[in-house]
Amino acid sequence: VQLQASGGGLVQAGGSLRLSCAASGRTFGDYVMGWFRQAPGKEREFVAAISRWSGGSTDYADSVKGRFTISRTNAKSTVYLQMNSLQLEDTAVYYCAAQARGSSWSREEVYDYWGQGTQVTVSS
Description:
single chain; mainly beta; seven-stranded mixed beta sheet; 11 strands
């Protein structure tokens, strides 16, 4: 699976962005999709994940619950991350990832494929 993330940019605190991740090469619906992020000087961390089906189960890191929403459209082979009420600490490179196993959604080591990352910068 090839993953292409987009939608990052510069936004003021309190603002919103929507990230997209387009997949190609395999059957998109076979994969659990996740978003991770890596801030400068920090390890990559889990942000959100969604089950194989559009409208399926989701999971979020505590730090983004209530502010971020993950969704997917299998017909378009795309997963989204709607980010609202952005905070300075949300500044990071955001990565989408795909896993076939379907377990341990927050563990990056179970993901099989990764996108190239898109930069999100939140300013005060």
